[in-house]
Amino acid sequence: MDNLAGLSTFDVHSNHLTGAIPAIVTGLPDLSFFDVSYNQLSGSIPLLAVPVSGTGLRNLSVFVVNNNQLTGTIPPLTGLAQLRYFYVFVNQLTGSIPALDGLSQLTYLDTADNHLGGPIPVLSGSPYLNYVNFENNQLSGPIPDLTNLSAMQYFYVGRNHLTGTVPAPPNPSSLLAPGSSLCPNDFLSAAYVQSAAWDAATGVMPWYTFCDYVFGDGFDL
């Protein structure tokens, strides 16, 4: 990839590729579409943006690396102003979900089925978010404010360690029924308030029915 400075699309998904994602991708300023999903890649996700110098993948719109064996942390995303799709689900990633500052075009965000911890980042700076999936991680803390995310149709945060109270759904709400999950988690029992909007969005009535679910192995979320 050393001589591909003008490359805009790189798509090798659904093969049997092994090894690591080469760090050289950061040096491809015209790259807008990157898909290596459904392979057997290992190692870490390379640095995508260099905020101090303003270099990196400034034109990156689609970054899809799901269903691999990637480890390490998710690199900073600040500076990827054109990013719309960010799919890293079904890997072995650790650490926290980085801040989404400046990602005003972000529409699809999926980090499900990893080992990510820490809080859910502020989402309100990405008003076009349509699909958000943080399921089956080790996230903690409260769900951030969702009020202005009126484009959101899918919101999955079940199977984490989230606490606090559940915020009101986006207003006006575009959440599809059923197209969301809030449980199981560790929400305060006081947060178990009736919400017809969340009942419809989750397809569960009342929405908190499975928040105290105990897995068969005795691990209580």
UniProtKB/TrEMBL annotation:
- Among its keywords, does the record have GTP-binding? no
Mind telling me which SUPFAM superfamilies this protein's record contains? L domain-like
Keyword tags: ATP-binding, Leucine-rich repeat, Nucleotide-binding, Repeat
Q: Do you know which InterPro entries this protein is assigned to?
A: LRR_dom_sf (IPR032675), Plant_LRR-RLKs (IPR050647)
Q: Which GO terms describe its molecular function?
A: ATP binding
Q: Keyword 4Fe-4S, does the record have it? A: no
Official protein name in the record: Leucine-rich repeat domain-containing protein
